[in-house]
Amino acid sequence: MDRLWLKRRIYILSGLTILLFLLQIIGSLFPVHLLQYGIIPRSSEGLFGIFISPFIHGSWSHLFSNLLLFLYLAFY
């Protein structure tokens, strides 16, 4: 049972990591401004950003620093 739990966790974390990298690649290669989907204060349109903003990063270093901590904390 413990091995199955670990396997599922690795699959979920791998999928999220790939998704984060793909979003960063799209944001880097194409003229898509993903930051516009972040949290916009004092507007009802910005509420959607609460759910989207964890997947948007301003730079590669921002992505790597968040991803390192995310993967570390995911196993504890």
TrEMBL record:
Membrane topology category: Multi-pass membrane protein
Subcellular location: Membrane
Metal-binding among keywords: no
GO CC field: membrane
Record keywords: Membrane, Transmembrane, Transmembrane helix
InterPro entries, alphabetized: Rhomboid-like_sf
Listed transmembrane segments: 12-35, 47-75
Primary localization: membrane
Listed name of the protein: Rhomboid family intramembrane serine protease
Species whose genome carries this gene: Proteus mirabilis
